[in-house]
Amino acid sequence: RSEEMAKSTQLIDNEVFRAYATYTAIVLLKMMLMSLVTAYFRITRKAFVNPEDTASFGKGDSAKKYLRTDPDVERVRRGHLNDLENIVPFVGIGLLYALSGPELSTALLHFRIFTGARIFHTFAYLIPLPQPGRGLSWAVGYAVTFSMTYRVLKTVLLL
Question: Does domain 15-154 have CATH number 1.25.40.620?
Fold first, then answer.
């Protein structure tokens, strides 16, 4: 049993896995921060979806006016949803990719480009920046995940 534990902890000695863990932690943290940004916008715009969230603004009709949508809150929510749609696949595919034995320099390129693209995408969504900036940053991140997927399949299936 302790031999199995030793083998699994050896992953942390693998530079590619450490790079994966680093950049995955960064994008997951960024995605988690989007929840805080959403909460900030809900509070500052006084736009809530649950009646209990409006209790501090009064009762009855005086609180109901805060049960509404707000374009800024919805924009943040769409950015967060986009993170979920793109970062979650990166986490899974990236793990398989890291375990498939890529060169460190190639793995770092994949991880860094994806992370940069997702961070830029968030700023492009929140500021907002004119298109095609947000669309291009999404496409770059998507292409990185697709590239890692192809390399995993090529390694595993000998394509």
Answer: no
